[in-house]
Write a structure and sequence with these properties.
The chain is mainly α. It is 80% helix and 0% strand.
Length: 350
């Protein structure tokens, strides 16, 4: 078995990298899933004040990380591309809506409805792919989207209104992901660019709050001040862990890990905050979970088929190469044999 320079086998190193990736993935989605426990600690700050602090301190933290890593070359290149800048400005506005609605939902006892938004987000993303990118769906994906639509209708009946928090969170995050795909910028770099755009409006709003005497940043004690400032770390740290996971584990594994966050949020809403779950809501969530199960099964089946096809192609290429090498070796042996046959005695005329 081939060994690395450090003395371990290549397989051992690969397994170690995958373990690191999985741990980072669990950490990222675990932290996102525990957000409902963090934002209530920031009261009496309102959702808009928390959002502004999150924008401002996120830039501070991400800029410090990029400064340590010396990753600033992308910024100069980005400033020369107005179209990408416009897309990033759009992403910054959309993620601000997403963050603001989520913070408001958590602080107004709507954690379960917020978790639903991230449960249905994969279904919304698929629907957007069909409508906007003209993507073609497999039959199982169509079934999952249909079941998801029925689930939203059932939940609308259960809530007595459309689950607007869930829909805003799902569609805003889906749109954000679509824009990020077009921008094609790394996680930390993208967050730095987005929060740089958000920074001045956030600071302006916080200064206005202070002038009105409504800011809580310096009026609720040092602990409250530290918690508001920590929104930058809370925003950036899961993203760093996610980036470390994304480069080490397969995309199918990331797809499964993404359900951890809404599962944690749902459990926190039901068990910790004791939010109501009448039968019609359970029915709606059950339909969403059925749709997600179908999506997951289809994604894993497709991934396995793709992997088998790639292996078969690689093996076929390997066999063909081996045959070519064998023929080449045979030809070389024949040439060598001809060259090394001893010449017979030269006969001269008597």
């Amino acid at each position: 078995m081939r060994r690395t320079h450090q003395g371990g086998t290549v397989a051992d190193k690969s397994r170690a990298e995958q373990r690191i990736g999985l741990l980072n993935g669990f950490a990222a989605y675990g932290m996102w899933g525990l957000f409902p426990l963090y934002f209530p600690l920031l009261k009496p700050a309102g959702a808009s004040e928390v959002l502004a602090h999150r924008m401002m301190w996120s830039l501070v933290v991400v800029a410090a990380v990029l400064l340590v890593l010396r990753r600033w070359r992308w910024a100069g290149e980005l400033l020369k591309q107005p179209r990408r800048l416009a897309l990033i400005a759009g992403a910054a506005a959309i993620i601000a809506v997403n963050w603001g609605v989520y913070i408001w939902a958590v602080n107004n006892d709507r954690v379960v409805e917020a978790s639903l938004g991230y449960f249905i987000n994969p279904l919304v993303t698929i629907a957007m792919g069909v409508l906007l990118l003209k993507e073609r769906l497999r039959p199982v994906q169509w079934a999952a989207v249909g079941i998801g639509l029925v689930a939203v209708l059932v939940l609308a009946v259960g809530y007595g209104r459309p689950p607007w928090i869930s829909l805003v969170l799902a569609f805003s995050f889906g749109t954000y992901g679509l824009i990020k795909k077009k921008v094609n910028l790394g996680g930390l770099e993208s967050l730095a660019a987005e929060t740089a755009i958000q920074f001045l409006p956030a600071v302006g709003y916080l200064l206005w709050l202070t002038s009105q005497g409504d800011s809580t940043f310096t009026t609720e004690g040092p602990g409250h001040t530290a918690l508001l400032a920590a929104t930058g770390i809370v925003t950036a740290l899961p993203l760093v862990c996610f980036g470390a996971a994304a480069i080490r584990v397969p995309l199918s594994t990331i797809g499964l890990l993404q359900y951890l966050a809404p599962v944690f949020q749902f459990l926190i809403g039901v068990l910790h905050f004791a939010e109501a779950m009448p039968p019609e809501r359970w029915a709606g969530f059950a339909l969403v979970w059925l749709a997600l199960s179908l999506l997951t099964w289809d994604a894993l089946r497709t991934a396995r088929r793709t992997a088998r096809a790639l292996r078969a192609t690689a093996e076929a290429r390997g066999t063909a190469q081996a045959d070519t090498d064998a023929h080449a070796d045979a030809d070389a042996d024949a040439v060598r044999n001809v060259e090394t046959v001893p010449a017979g005695p030269v006969r001269t005329k008597p």
